[in-house]
# Entry
Amino acid sequence: MNDPTRGPRTRAALVAASIELFDRQGYESTSLEAVCRRVSVTKGALYRHFPSKQALAVAVVEEYFRRWHDVRAELEGAGGGPLRTLIALTERMGLLVHEDRTVRVGARLLYTSELFDLVAGVHFACLTAVVRDLLHRAAAAGEVVAGADVREEAEGFTTAVVGAHVVSVVAARAGRPLAPWRRRLDRLTAHPVLPSSVAACP
Amino acid sequence: MDPQTAVTTRDELLAAAAEVFERHGYVRATVDDVCLRAGVTKGALYGHFSSKKALAVALVEEHAREWARARERLQRVHRSPLQVLVDLGYATDDPVVRRLVFQSPVWEEVAERQLARWRSTAHDLLRGAAARGELREDGDLPSLAEGLVAELVGAHLVGMAVDAADAVALGLARVWRSWLPAVVRPEVWAGLRVDPPR
# Structure
């Protein structure tokens, strides 16, 4: 009864079940009853963690944001330099829209539901800050051509990444992810051709 | 009902639906709100549209038809297909339709078709520009169009998250300023206007 890990475990199970159900039948068509049934908890237990379906969906999108941070931390840890990190991060997240259920469901919720108004602004601001930071460090390391407007480039790069993700989510197209941001990078980098990092990412 | 009245009622219902969706959002809007706004009975509405979703889909389709007409108009005004492309980008800037396409449950019905429409139009206009020798290289035009549309979609979405009326237009102009010089010949780029048409 007083197991202190039970609350967090139930919460995690509810989020995992939501991801699965949202993926299979969509956010609009998934009922809270279905989520409860899947985890075998009462609706009262669900409401202790999430006051509404929207709150549950926000938790799912937060998992998606966490993936961005985790992948970035992992790549930074690998020590490939700021520019390589930026390319690998962008390519990996583009692939994960197709391959990872949490990323797919989170991105779909973010871009195609009412959650957009709640969390998209913050996400875009964070994303732009991450890109700007990596580009600034790339510039400091001499990896970017002299005189580049890093602020402006970061905004443009983020726009291209967001657009590619939206197109992937909406069209649910398999195969090679779009990389409209790559052309920008080719123009920005002092080294004209950077090998694709996709092959290096399992 | 004579055909003239039918057309008017349908248009009035669509205009009312656009206002209701704008004010309450698609999810919270009701068919009753639309009837009230248009001053028609529910029976009359159902004579034209089977559901709230049908209203939304019809709004998006109507916008697409207007967009096609805008293209014809622009092609009569501008010699360069690239200027037509730039101005058409701004002509997609309808906040209500944008929300229906991306942030409502209607997206599953309309978003993919809308993107396909943008891609084929962009491809078509790029082919026109290539035929006039305006591009730096006539490489893989379908991929070029696909990448461009992704960037424009990104500008729409990022702009929508910002609480400023001109955020989308600013984002679109930013895309054009970086995309066009990389793709078109310098002398062509010099003659293009990338800011919204007045």
